[in-house]
Amino acid sequence: MAVLIYLLDESLASEQQFNDVKMLTSSVMFKLILLAVLAGLIYHSVAGVKHLILDMGIGETLEGGIAAAKLVFIISAILTLLVGVWIW
Q: In total, how many domains does the chain have?
C-alpha cells in the first residue's frame, strides 16, 4: 500500500510525472500485482468483519465457524472479481 500512496504522490507532482505513472500503471504486470495486493486487503477486511461478528457471540459453534469461514472466502472472491473488473 505504501507504493500505491507513493505513486499517487508522484502523479500529483507534475504533468510529466503523471504521464510516467500512467504509463507504469497501464502495464498488465502492474495490474496483476495491484489485484493481488487488493485481494489480500479485501480478504483481511472481510475476515476482520467476521471476527467482529464472532466477538458479538454470533456463530460461535463449530458449524457456525465453518459456515462463516466459507462465507468469507465467497464474499472475498466476489469482491476481488469486482475489483478486477474495475482495474481493467
A: 1
Q: Could you tell me the three cell numbers for 53? A: 461478528
The confidence score (pLDDT) of residue 27 equals: 93
Give the cell for residue 52. Answer: 467482529
Residue whose C-alpha cell is 468483519: 49
Establish if 77 belongs to a structural domain.
yes
Banded model confidence at residue 3, pLDDT cuts 50, 70, 90:
confident
Spatial distance between the Cα atoms of 68 and 66, rounded to a whole number of angstroms: 5
Cα 80 from Cα 88, distance rounded (Å):
12
- For residue 7, tell me if it sits in a domain: no
Burial 43-65, CB ≥16 within 10 A → b, else e: beebbeebeeeeeeeebeeeeee
Residue 4 has pLDDT above 90, yes or no: no
For residue 48, the enclosing domain spans: 27-87
Residue 77 has pLDDT above 90, yes or no: yes
